[in-house]
Specification:
The complex is a heteropentamer, with two copies of chain A, one copy of chain B and two copies of chain C.
Chain A: E1 4-12, E2 15-23, E3 28-33, H1 39-47, E4 56-59, E5 62-66, E6 69-70, E7 78-81, H2 93-101, H3 112-118, H4 134-146, E8 152-156, H5 164-180, E9 185-188, H6 192-198, E10 201-206, E11 209-215, H7 216-221, E12 234-245, E13 250-255, E14 258-263, E15 272-278, E16 282-285, E17 296-307, E18 312-319, E19 327-333, H8 334-339, E20 347-352, E21 356-357
Parallel strand pairs in A: 3-9, 3-10, 7-8, 8-9
Antiparallel strand pairs in A: 1-2, 1-4, 4-5, 5-6, 10-11, 12-13, 12-15, 13-14, 15-21, 16-20, 17-18, 17-20, 18-19
Helix pairs in contact in A: 2-4
Chain B: E1 2-8, H1 12-25, E2 30-36, H2 38-46, E3 53-55, H3 60-67, E4 76-81, E5 83-86, E6 108-111, H4 117-128, H5 132-135, E7 139-142, H6 145-153, E8 159-163, H7 164-167, H8 170-173, E9 178-180, E10 189-195, H9 203-212, H10 215-223
Parallel strand pairs in B: 1-2, 1-3, 6-7, 6-8
Antiparallel strand pairs in B: 3-10, 4-10, 5-8, 5-9
Helix pairs in contact in B: 1-10, 2-3
Chain C: H1 9-42, H2 48-56, H3 63-74, H4 79-86, H5 96-122, H6 125-132, H7 137-148, H8 150-166, H9 169-175, H10 185-194, H11 198-221
Helix pairs in contact in C: 1-5, 1-8, 1-10, 3-9, 5-8, 5-9, 6-7, 10-11
One adenosine-5'-triphosphate sits between chains A (12-15, 33, 35-41, 83) and E (131-136).
């Protein structure tokens, strides 16, 4: 699939949007930025709900907006989950779910039954929206958007009203859409954990402008990027399953420059998987540490360091004794950094306390 | 002193002139005239409307008031109305009632016989002329005689029966001529007035009532197509 | 006029005619008033104000005067009269169709104004959502905007229907009071009162009031409220 | 009647009276119609339906017939007449106050219906929020519900105002057509038309139309829309 | 301040609420539960927006609801942040903020200027709500509720639409309300990190019923509790500042059974602070580990273990060689647990990779 080319420029009183984006036509692109930075506005422009006069938008080599061309929203094969659930007040949950579904010909992505089951809406089908809880409303909105069988999914903080349990059920499904159906998704979320888990590509937005964009791994592993500065900073690595330890439900995943043990109930050897490692889960030692409950201890080389604040720093290390492997972030106090005498170029041991894996196959698997 | 006169709508032009003349003769007196439907005035006076004199298009109304004890004077006839055949696009002067049966005439306007005195007389005339059955399906009914005239004037009815006092009104006289319907074809359309109870002590009311019987007033009335008591209108 | 127990035949005929007239006018105005109201609610042009005002104008003329002007317009020398002649249609005055047209003209604001308000209250969001769910603007209008504006439709229909039942100035002028064709109940009651036939007037009024009350009651009982779940 | 260039003194007097009448009636109905509409919009009782229907009932009687019944009621033998006599007030018929009362009665549905719809559209949430912000129900009504229902107030006021301007059946009956007291413009135009004084009628109609058009235009220009930021 | 006594029972079609709660009259009480479990409904009952016929509610020894008594919402000195921002559409941001403020006599808690600055609303004051972004709306709603100077603050997912930056600014402020002003807060959030940071007391709700309640530390450190089962499981400990290391911006905090180094730019010796330790930040070793970037290594004793799933387990350890100190949770793979031969009663070393502190003083400081 081709890519998404978007160029929008428009001034509102008190806010102006000016973006020029080239997004991959597959995988999840996360829009990340402060409250009021223009994420929703950008999404609305892509959906055709907002009209930037000199804009240009081409999706999958189809032109949706250009000097002489304007495809109205209802002809764009999108699914849109609004920031506020925005259900139709006059329709029941079922009516809401079926609204878009009835208007498309075939169901390649999601069936009604599947959506209802996945989103746990079975007991609510006859309710009117004003008798739903906040999270229930949001789940209906997600289902409604998916059931339009979109070719491009736009999601504006779809999971923000949901509890962990619901998120844990829906996230793998979004991963599945991304991977099995190669459905491109543009995703707004303030939850870094969500972004790191889902996104392949990240766009950083500030005051209506793009201030950074690139593959997730690049943006993440740059200690100077805003992603690295948060409590949830993490990296996502591509790995291949090398061995399976059925007894303990663990797998060994080879990543560039090392091998990690990770919990994964279901996997098969040779499969490509995405591995997430939080900066806060990585500690560094000059000497090889003794045995502890930390499973993964890997040789690595320090490549960069960035102070987070007066107290803490984030270090980037490259796996392998030669420092040529995949990059991890490690967060520690400045005291530790100095007392261990760490510096770029030094060889260290990275202790990785916990590793998590994508539910589905990493996109690399398709190549 | 001041009087308020309630007068039937068909008196409008004559009355305006008479009042003007009366005021000229009695500059200190104030005479206010309200025109309208006689039936409505009748109801309103029963409910205490502030009218001192009531000139009705149908003498039955003042008689009813007198019977109810709401009058301060005798009920006096002041004129009788005549009805005419009138048209804005045909030459009515060359027509008679019989012309109404002509199939080229499809719409004939008369006032509603159910409650408008002129309408009732129109129906009587048509019946007397033996034409009622032939023309009934062509009839349209105006709420009152003015509206009937408007049906004809706007061409929506080709011809109709209206009051002589309207046909001589400049607005209509300029549009077409009329044919006077013989008064033997219908009951007399006797118009009467009464001084209401509230004007019992109002001298001006009595003076104005008297003035209506004076020669200048009678002259005006005649000019506007009314037949005065004691006179016979020639055809 | 053969009398039944309560009402004369001509009273009954008038009632039938009235209900037919009010029904047809309400239908027609639902058909034509809705797009006007929709346009007024959503257009961004500055024409909106003047056109909105023009729609409300028929209200400010006394009905029988308006009737007079309509009579002029529909008459053989008026523009509508010319049109009907050119089209070879029967002239409109003194016909039921003429009555419908005149009543529709006069009652237009009662349909348009409440609908306009209701459409404005719906807001943009539901229509945006509908568009992202593949509904064309027309589709979205019928499946989203109209249901959400249902109370507005009810109000507009009640006002139009009741007003058409009660109105008689225009009707009297345009209709010519023809029994069975244009003599609706309001005219009939008026005639009774004018003829001092008070008993008849009271009876017919009472029947109209009771009938209307029951109709309105039924409408209210079924009153839709898209915001509440029922 | 001394003639000015365009309109006679009595025309001008009638216009002044009309504007006053329409203004006063609109005010009074804003005052009394609003609580009724509010109650109808929010009450949960089953009395709602019948009362809502009763409010709309004055519409279905022909104006002059309604005027006739009002005249009977307000007259010396009617219940209202008894009341005014007991209270030592001047009888209402043929006074400006009587006109106001009758017009208010007749125009009530035009105020109540659009307001009710507008209040229903406001929904519960803003009032709940207001309560959590310490606003008493009355306070919340004035500071939240009423501003949010502003378009409904506008619609209701336009319909009431315009309808009171145009209405003459009730007015003629109750008012008795007294110059300067109860002879409003609609009655004056009607009189002109009835007297076949078309030029006068056209002029006065034109003046009323232009005046009303400008008033409505001004209202539209300023039309509040609480959902849009301006 | 006294406590909050709440008893509500009511059936709706498809849902029934039946709670009997005794909440502390100070600090933050977090309501925690699945989407649709009845959290918002409970909050609405407390606010008087929903009426449970046989309910009883006493706050601070004032009876708000009882058989013969009903204090209407507008007379309850509460601040309510709704799950959806619910701004007044006809008022500007300023108008919204001032709405409640104008209706109370004095400003003990928050001043208008302070709220505007804290919530970053300065440039938006003249805007109408429909021209705000989702996060901006939510910030206005928070400010509006705070400016009513409430005696009880009810917050329904107040921060869910906010980015990290905004959260990081608002959270300390809520802590300050809780601590300096002793303002009791009932707080709904799906974000465990938020709950762990703010809450003193946790109420677990499921299907309209209370399935668990207690002080945060108790609920947290029970490996069987739902809180322990999530990725963000953590414990919160009371500590006292013992020493300050100005060079590195670290403080030493004494907790029961041990001493922790933690980043804290501003603190003074003797101050009581709350310390948060994530289960995922704690690893266990049988022998004392060598030096690494992990600053805190404490002797402890294993007290309990609960399997999380087939792969991972959560262990509770008590600090100190005698196992009498504060409890921590440690999350690890079952493989580690078994290979290290761990079992309850065993002495171990707990390596705590990161420790975070409350911004304000812990409530203990007032005692
Ligand atoms: N007006 C109502 N009538 C009937 N049921 C309702 C009503 N409002 C909510 N419910 C139902 O009550 C249950 C509890 O709703 P509530 O809003 O309290 O949930 P919640 O715990 O706040 O969930 P969330 O986290 O999704 O906001 C839900 O199942 C919901 O469907
Ligand atoms: N209709 C509008 N007119 C003018 N400005 C607007 C309008 N809608 C939003 N804005 C402003 O545009 C900016 C961007 O809004 P947008 O909704 O895109 O932000 P966002 O990045 O989605 O923020 P959040 O994370 O809070 O949802 C904000 O400053 C907002 O105030
Ligand atoms: Mg947004
Ligand atoms: Mg909720």
């Amino acid at each position: 699939m081709a890519a998404i080319d978007a160029h929008f420029r428009r001034d509102w009183p008190g806010f102006s949007l000016d973006v020029d984006l080239h997004l991959p036509g597959r995988g999840v692109t996360a829009l990340f930025g402060h409250s009021g930075s223009g994420k929703s506005t950008l999404l609305r422009c892509i959906a055709g709900l907002e009209r930037a006069p000199q804009g240009r938008l081409a999706v999958d080599s189809e032109v949706w907006q250009d000097a002489g061309r304007w495809v109205p929203t209802h002809r764009r094969p999108i699914g849109y989950v609004f920031q506020e659930a925005s259900l139709f007040a006059h329709l029941s949950v079922m009516g809401n779910l079926r609204y878009g579904m009835k208007r498309v010909s075939d169901a390649q992505l999601v069936s009604l039954d599947h959506a209802i089951e996945l989103l746990g809406l079975g007991h609510l089908l006859d309710r009117k929206p004003d008798r739903l809880s906040g999270g229930e409303r949001q789940r209906v909105a997600i289902g409604r958007a998916l059931l339009t069988q979109p070719k491009l999914l736009l999601m504006d903080e779809p999971l923000s009203a949901l509890d962990r349990g619901a998120k844990a059920e829906i996230l793998p499904f979004i991963e599945k859409l991304r991977d099995h159906f190669a459905l491109p998704i543009i995703y707004i979320s303030h939850d870094l954990a969500e972004v790191e888990r889902l996104a392949d590509h990240v766009v950083l937005i500030d005051q209506g402008r793009v201030v950074g964009a690139g593959p997730l791994a690049d943006v993440q592993s740059d200690p100077a990027s805003p992603l690295a500065r948060s409590r949830e900073a993490a990296v996502s690595l591509r790995g291949v399953v090398e061995a399976i330890d059925a007894t303990f439900g663990l797998i060994a995943v080879a990543v560039a420059g090392g091998r990690l043990l990770a919990p994964a109930p279901a996997a098969s050897v040779g499969e490509a998987r995405r591995v997430h490692i939080l900066a806060s889960a990585v500690s560094l030692a000059r000497e090889k540490p003794g045995r502890s409950s930390i499973l993964n201890v890997l040789p690595a080389r320090v490549v960069a360091m960035n102070p987070l604040d007066a107290v803490e720093v984030v270090a980037a290390v490259a796996l392998g004794e030669d420092g040529e492997g995949a990059r991890l972030l490690a967060r520690m106090t400045r005291k530790s950094w100095e007392e261990l005498g760490l510096a770029p170029g030094q060889n260290v041991y990275a202790q990785v306390k916990s590793v998590s894996l994508d539910a589905g196959r990493a996109e690399g698997a398709k190549n | 002193e001041k009087v308020t006169v309630a007068a039937a709508a068909d008196l409008k032009f004559a009355m305006d002139e008479i009042v003007a003349a009366f005021k000229k003769a009695n500059p200190a007196d104030e005479v206010e005239v309200v025109y309208g439907s006689s039936g409505k005035f009748n109801t309103q006076i029963q409910q205490g409307a502030p009218y001192d004199l009531f000139f009705s298009a149908d003498i039955a109304f003042p008689r009813a008031l007198a019977k109810a004890g709401l009058a301060a004077s005798e009920v006096k006839p002041y004129a009788s109305g005549r009805i005419v055949l009138w048209s804005a696009n045909l030459d009515a002067t060359k027509m008679t009632l019989a012309s109404l049966a002509d199939p080229t005439i499809t719409r004939i306007a008369i006032a509603n016989p159910q409650h408008a005195p002129y309408g009732r007389r129109a129906e009587e005339s048509l019946r007397a002329a033996g034409l009622w059955e032939k023309v009934e399906s062509k009839l349209v009914y105006g709420e009152n005689i003015a509206q009937t005239a408007q049906y004809i004037q706007t061409g929506n009815a080709q011809v109709g029966i209206i009051a002589l006092s309207l046909a001589v009104n400049p607005e209509l006289a300029s549009k077409g001529g009329y044919w006077l319907i013989p008064d033997k074809l219908h009951a007399p359309l006797e118009q009467g007035y009464v001084i209401t109870k509230r004007a019992e002590g109002n001298a001006l009311a009595h003076r104005f009532a008297d003035y209506m019987g004076s020669p200048p007033a009678r002259a005006v009335m005649t000019r506007y197509g009314f037949v005065l008591p004691g006179e016979i209108a020639g055809n | 006029m053969k009398g039944t127990n309560m009402l004369t035949d001509s009273d009954l005929q008038a009632i039938g005619l009235t209900v037919r007239l009010a029904g047809v006018v309400t239908m027609i105005l639902l058909l034509f008033g809705t797009p006007i109201a929709w346009w007024l609610a959503r257009a961004k042009t500055s024409w909106k104000g003047p056109i909105g005002a023009v729609v409300a104008l028929p209200l400010v003329l006394p009905p029988s005067v308006l009737g007079f002007y309509l009579l002029l317009a529909m008459g053989p020398h008026g523009p509508v009269g010319h049109l009907t002649r050119t089209l070879g249609i029967e002239p409109l005055p003194f016909t039921f169709r003429g009555l419908v047209l005149a009543s529709a003209f006069y009652s237009l604001p009662f349909m348009v104004q409440p609908l306009q308000t209701a459409f404005e209250a719906v807001g943009d969001r539901p229509l945006e959502v509908a568009a992202t769910l593949r509904a064309s603007p027309l589709d979205a209008f019928f499946t989203v905007a109209a249901p959400l504006a249902a109370p507005g439709f009810l109000t507009a229909s009640i006002l139009t229907f009741a007003h058409t039942i009660g109105e008689f100035g225009v009707v009297l002028m345009i209709g010519g009071n023809l029994p069975g064709v244009t003599r609706v109940a309001s005219v009939q009651i008026y005639d009774h009162v004018e003829a001092l036939e008070y008993t008849q007037a009271h009876r017919l009024s009472a029947v109209m009031l009771i009938f209307s009350f029951l109709t309105l009651l039924a409408l209210y009982a079924w009153r839709p409220n898209p915001k509440n779940g029922g």
